[in-house]
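Materials and Methods. Structural model of Protein translocase subunit SecA. The 908-residue sequence of Protein translocase subunit SecA from Paenochrobactrum gallinarii was retrieved and submitted for structure prediction as follows.
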Amino acid sequence: MVSFGGLARKIFGSSNDRRVKSMRQRVQQITALEKNYEALTNEQLQAKTAEFRAALANGKTVDDLLPDAFATAREAAKRVLGMRPFDVQLIGGIVLHERGIAEMRTGEGKTLMATLPVYLNALEGKGVHVVTVNDYLAGRDAQTMAKLYNFLGLTVGVIGHGMDDDQRRASYGCDITYATNNELGFDYLRDNMKYERAQMVQRPHHYAIVDEVDSILIDEARTPLIISGPLEDRTDFYNLINNFIPQLSAEDFEVDEKAKTAIFTEVGTERMEQLLAEAGHLKGEGLYDIENVAIVHHLNNALRAHTLFQRDKDYIVNNDEIVIIDEFTGRMMPGRRYSEGLHQALEAKEAVKIQPENQTLASITFQNYFRMYTKLAGMTGTAATEAEEFGNIYGLEVVEIPTNLPVARIDDHDEVYRTVEEKYKAIVRDILEAHAKSQPVLVGTTSIEKSEMLAERLRKDGVKDFQVLNARYHEQEAFIIAQAGVPGAITIATNMAGRGTDIQLGGNLEMRVQRELADMPEGAEREQKIEAIKADIAVLKEKALAAGGLYVLATERHESRRIDNQLRGRSGRQGDPGRSKFFLSLQDDLMRIFGSDRMDGMLQKLGLKEDEAIVHPWINKALEKAQKKVEARNFEMRKNLLKYDDVMNDQRKVIFEQRLEMMDSEHLTDAVTEMRHEVIEDMVALRIPENAYAEKWDIAGLKEDVAKTLNLDLPVEEWAKEEGIAEEEFLNRIMEAADKAAADRAERFGEQIMTYVEKSVILQSLDNLWREHLVNLDHLRSVVGFRGYAQRDPLSEYKTESFELFQAMLGNLREVVTSQLMRVELVREAAAEPAPELPVMSGSHIDSSTGMNDFDPDAWAEHQEDERIIDPSSRDASDPRTWGRVSRNESCPCGSGKKYKHCHGAFD
Ligand code: ADP
Ligand code: MG
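The predicted structure was written out as tokens:
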């Protein structure tokens, strides 16, 4: 019987097959060229790059060049890397060139596949970005593939976390740049805060290939990338608002515990308006005026802090600080803070020190960052389950690339236990069973905590020989995971840990050479040692094969099928045997979601005894259904985030474009004059409304505005006395006077200085106002959610009001710029001052799987270690993480007296 899902897959599969088939013909075309290219000398092969570039200059397109460029890259890979890209890699390369997502299984060689379209597109000289999930992978891939690119005459750069702007600019200037999504986004935002084009580091966004594209464009897209800087102290403000709340009575607000919302009623709103007005904090007419967005946001937070958050249940007060208690695990989370002022509201409530806030200086979602590329493509082992999202949001079509060799892995049905306890018992038993026959085991968990828990259990059962990975120290973990295919290895890893590193049965030659022969110079002895390692690996591989290959044992199902597939896919690479199995219990989160109560009863009825498992295809299907539901919900969440971000994105585009235009222009007088004129028009219209009787004119007000904004003392009141003076006469005279003052100033300053001054004033004012605007948008966004009771759609409300805020900001900008430029004076004939410094900034991007900040300095520990600059005296003997890179022959920093290679640096 064919299920509907299977049927759909058949249809999907067949159209996929047709696409792949059509590409096979083109691959044959490339393969047909192989003979010719093999006959070329190295010099002739290398000369192809210049030939292709000349062809492009003469009107050929990259599409025209594809067969020859791919053939060139293939031949070069054979010569320099000793690998001949398989036909399926060529197919994937074509998909990437044609803006698709190549779904290719783990271990099939995506890194090499990408070099083909990278080479082809880099010929255009506009820069190609290869995007990886972490710094370690960016460095590794750049380094291995640089051999190929350099051979073909192309330059390669890599962006590392600690780099300064000059290094970054140089790397972005290369034909090909390897970088993480975080660094790319961060540089983009920072670039758009700079004051001169020359300070910017990135070039326009031409072509990007995103590796592990599902992680970056789907998982990481759940949270935006934010750059922030410290904000001034607002302790008094928080305390003021905090004091309002205890003055409220029950009729003033409504609390919904379940939905975790607390809102003011109409009476409450009026009460707040009154209190704010008394304190002199109410702007405009009422609380829901757009000027009060920030205040409403803080009022809401204060109300929530008092009504929804309980001391010693949701948080504790410790050492003058609020420490969050995780609602699921019940653990304290020191250092974690609630967002956007809520934490400060709690601090005010508990009368502890109010910690300084950070202000968002700029932010972007990865969706919007990557949509800027003229051409975007991606690759991963798992994309098909999310094909709809890739299509909808990025316009990227997923193409499943067949494996080079048939997959020989056996995927067992899920094994379901009644309790977590029984499940873990079974897991440990299975691990030990596999271990006893030397089968390497990779145990996948859904969180670091669960990995640690399992490790603890194994230790209790006397197993010591295992490794735990938690996606924090990418370089070390890459080595560990690369060895996870050695017979008898037990590796416990979260889903994300060791991503991008291939698990080869028997171990990884390159990794071992790198580690074991680090200090050995090139030469015969080294070659000999390499041969010895090779032989060792071959023996180990045989043993691992005999034991059935890598056994992937998953301790839970993830909420997304894609992540489960990723885990499974780590076994059975390139036709190797392997096995995978998921262990579940009715107490797992996912099982609870789809009503395990009923199932529990059923299992009991069936007479399931303790420690017995049920295995049934029905369960797999039911789970898949539950996963699909969760996936759909998460997709909605991301779409929603994007809808809001799109509003800001449109505004950001306008601002950044304007900024660039200003930065580049050599002449700003026209723009400045236009701004000034608009300001004057608004000013006059306000004080002398059209068709109003002369008695209604606010002449004193006009005079004041002219003085304040234009820095001019004009006899406006005299003009008003003139018989029958027309309204536009005011406008004309003020404009004339202002233009003259501006012209005089320009004359005094000289054109060059004037332009410089105008530019600085505009850019700085724009930046300040834009940052304020971002904060307002943030606040607006949290506020619109609370207006639900008025039956309005929060998103459309947000759109309308953010547009109003944007307009207001532009009006403000014109005024600020005009007012400043009508006042500047040259103190001396000073040489142009250096451009203002950028504010202190830090990046943050919350990884939605770990909840940790990717930019957290801790997470970068391995890079600091990498620099070999650690002063040995600063090493902590008891903590190997503080040692940096230790030379193999050095005495071990732990103080044992043994050489490092025989102590902590020993390979077991
Ligand atoms: P993926 O990213 O698809 O999981 P990798 O790019 O890490 O896979 O490659 C896996 C392994 O396969 C690497 O060791 C790589 O050197 C090897 N490999 C890739 N392509 C080829 C090829 N055409 N011939 C031989 N080995 C290859
Ligand atoms: Mg890879």
